[in-house]
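Recap quiz, item 2
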Amino acid sequence: MTAPGPSGAPVAPLPLRRTALSRLVGGLAGVDRLALAGAVLLGLIVLAALLAPWIAPYPDDGGSATHPLEALLPPSGAHWFGTDQVGRDVLSRVLYGARTSLVIAVAVLALSGIVGVVLGVVAGYAGGWERDVIMRVTDVFLAFPALLLSLALAVVLQPSVTTVIVAIAVTWWPWYARLTASVAASVSTRGFVDSACCLGVPAPLIVFRHVLPNSLTPVLVQLSLDGGGVILTAAALSYLGLGAHEPTAEWGLMVQQGQSLFTTDWWVVTFPGLAILVTAFAFNVLGEGLRARLAR
Amino acid sequence: MSGTMIRIRDLAVRMGDRVIASVPELDVVAGECVAIVGESGSGKTTTLLATLGLIEGADISGNIAIDGVDVLSAPLAELRRIRGSRVALVMQSPQAALNPTMRLGTLMRRALARHGVKGAEARSRAADAVTAVLLEPAILRRYPHQVSGGQAQRFAIALAIALGAEVVLADEPTSALDVTVQAEVVAVLRRLRDERGLAVLLVSHDLALVSTIADRVVVMKDGAVVESGPAADVFARPGDAYTRELIAAVPQLPDRLAAEPAEDKK
């Protein structure tokens, strides 16, 4: 096991001790680095969201507290990210905002994922008229520009976090239905599906026990890729005043409230904006990494 | 341990206005292996799938009975009952026939539970069946990708045994395996036929394989039966030109090697 060095002379291999640490690092190197980076970043964001009440320097500022005397202070030792129009600590609000954004992201992905995957797997396995019905309904939803449909829904419903979740999920599930249907259709032609049928397994059980678990991989990749998109969309809806409203800490809302101050008090809008950027980035990197790893 | 396990009469499978398989008469009794041979597209697999009631989008007429149950007219629940517990299918590609996300043991347990066998009874049946096909019981803890093709194929047969199937339909069960492994699978099938009185309907284009196991042979061409009879007779005195051609196409070392193979595939 000697490799030629730069000069062409053989170089003795480094004596590597296989410690637990080096095995861990080696094992991690086997994992896609991109996926790992995304997962770590996302893990930190989730941790920040979970621990917001404890790590936020001014926990009350995540809610309705106001401190008019401390309004619009620039970043300092006391307020790392500065304060907003009513004197709340921006760092605290960014941390609490992570909760809102992640709840929205998880709820939307879960809702649309479940609906899309169930419809898709049924359509893919059944084929025939069942597939046609499900896919045409899906097409109708896909025919609307997603943000426009979300906007319309958010206008009709009362602005709230729940509204945002419903409005986005309604435009999101058709993609999963589409994806799952195409994968499930090809999985359904595989031997073990016929084989299950030959063992007397009824169709619903074949669909959920044999077709579904073997169709999930691309959907999982898509779900993780879409986390960023959901957060951006949620921020957009809140920015337009159709989602979360005061005093809920929500990044999109914070950006909207701070944008008029950008030239004078840049920190009010910059930090929540950065939070959106970083979270969306983390989801995308994780998704890309997973895709690279699972793609065949 | 006797009786007609598969009984086919006047079977005709039509796709559009074309008859893709027609079998006037075919019986398989317990303890017997009947082989359907013929080139690709001759209708042999179609006949097999029709026997299981698994053909979609084709028009099937005639009569197919498995252990007395009329496959073409039985209600779905009845079909599901006999599928597995009476008749089992062994597929061409063994690994594709096993759900990759399930351990073999889980798969077998679920299949048994589906037919009402649970708990200790299921465990002992699984162990018996696995042993009957000359596999280690430890294989039940493996996933399909962790076993070889021959092991997977024998497991598929074990599944049939565990469920108590008396009829095994085998669709080219060895064509995806290499020669030594083929011999194992055939040996297992032959043993089960002799010891347990299993009825085997084998579909294959491999005459060398067929000659080692089949009691009777049905030769099909272009969807029709051209010849049938006891295996020894058909191989010794082929009555049909096509059968002679098939037999001539079996590679025989070494003098056949140089000659232009009379293969008539596609």
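The radius of gyration of chain A is 24 Å.
Residues 91 and 162 of chain A are 25 Å apart (CA to CA).
End of item.
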